[in-house]
Amino acid sequence: MNLFTPIADFGNYLFFCLLVGYVVLQFVPQSKKPTIQFPKSLLLICTLGIIIFTFVPVLVLIRFFDDTAGFAQAAASVILTTQVGQGWLFITVFAIFLWLTFYLERSKYIQGFWIVLMMIAIGYSSHVSSQSFVVGIFSHTTHFLMVTIWVGVLFHVSWFSRDKQHWSEFLQWFTPLAIVCIINIFASGFVIMFTIEKPAEYLDGWATPYGRMLLLKHISIIPIILFAVINGILSRKASTFSDYEPRKWLKSESLILLLVFYFTAVLGTLSPPYEMPPAAQTVETPTWVEWLFAKDILLPIEVDIAPTFLTVLLISVALLFLLLIIISYKKMSPVFATLFGGCFILTLYLGLIFSCALYPVI
Ligand code: HEM
Fold it and tell me: Burial, 41: exposed, middle or buried (Cβ in 10 Å; 0-12, 13-18, 19+)?
């Protein structure tokens, strides 16, 4: 698996969130948000960064073909004839217009217009749109847009705010916005997922690298929902106390979100089940890391859940870590909550994967 593409995709998600968060917050009056300072230079860097990061998967494809066709010919055919290449061309054109719009400080509506076009271009080159074009582009663009609106505002307020003024006014619009975004993220996420694999294949998918990374992503969303409840609802009362610092808890939530971004970035580089050829017989025993991420597992496989004492213990420990996040909200620093979130993800993933009994389908 090439290491650069997930890192580039991860950077992409971050840059898109910062740009969308910046545009959304322009629509919010100063009396309803903390003082946020986001340098214009960073806006321009994020926009150019997206052109560079979205080019990485294109370059990987060009390198794949340049042995046979030569670099120039491979580059021309990949950029002009593949969905990933064409998507990058669209993104580059729209990003240049966006860069000019930011540089000349034009209206927030025009900024929003170019960003949405760039997201449609990302949806155009996604896995799901190669499976079902219209449903794919629509569900992927909705998914990505909702993620960047919610997480974009969260990143700006947690990492670029200078104070915690107007916090309760901020929560009054941000909590409902986050709820609407999360509902749409789940709805579009299920549409993407069930366009890529049938619901009945979800469990058998745990025998493939794609299915296991999707499971890891789903598990990592659970602590995020808990943090969202803490930051959006439980902290309302606490935010009246002068010594309560709500931005620290938003930072914790944003760190776990970065984990979801990384798992999603890796997911985007793995072959979905419909692309997986029946694997040849494996000869050597996979290492535990390869086993953990289902590398080279013999396909087709049927997966059954066969819990053991160890896996039930692991899952119970995972639930304990979730409980500890709530307890730490009352009594400890958010650093512990972030760690408990990470431990929850790891122990639940191990508990579920060790509960898997794999049966080759003859
Ligand atoms: C906190 C919640 C979530 C976040 C932050 C998130 C983030 C993302 C992002 C950024 C992408 C775009 C990937 C790309 O095009 O490179 C994506 C794709 C995807 N998401 Fe989510 N997502 C979330 C929840 C969900 C849920 C609940 C599901 C399923 C039920 C889901 C399923 C998917 C799938 C299947 C893809 C396509 C991956 C691929 O094959 O490239 N996501 N998600």
Answer: exposed
